[in-house]
Amino acid sequence: MADVLDEIADDVRSMHRISKERITGTMLQVIFIVAAGSVIAPIILGMVSTVIQLLIETSSGISSSKALVVEAVTAKDTIMSLMQAYCDN
Q1: What distance in Å separates the CA atoms of residue 68 and residue 60, rounded to the nearest whole number?
Q2: What is the Cα–Cα distance from 1 to 69, expressed in whole angstroms?
Q3: Which contiguous run of DSSP H or E holds residue 2?
Q4: 10 Å Cβ neighbour count for 42?
Q5: Rounded CA gap, 47 and 41, in Å?
Q6: Coil, helix or strand at residue 89
Q7: 10-31, pLDDT tens digit by residue?
Q8: pLDDT tens for each residue of 36-55
Q9: DSSP code for 37
Q10: Contacts of 49 (CB under 8 A, 6+ apart)
Q11: Global pTM?
């Protein structure tokens, strides 16, 4: 009888350990998603905005590429609007 109770206790302990491991694994995924959404995404959007601004500034000095400048400004405005919408959420 004591052996049966020991085996049951071992099974309960292993089930409890498995449930804790599942919770830990889920929390790591949640932390990754939150970190990616709140830290990494704004950094990437800021870098894209900076690169677009740099491209606009360097291409605005060339008179033959005025169409490119207009398209770059439109793209910059679109990306800035998307970034503001993202940050507002």
Answers
A1: 9
A2: 84
A3: helix 2-35
A4: 13
A5: 10
A6: coil
A7: 999 999 999 998 888 888 888 8
A8: 888 888 888 888 887 777 77
A9: I
A10: 76, 79, 80, 83
A11: 0.43
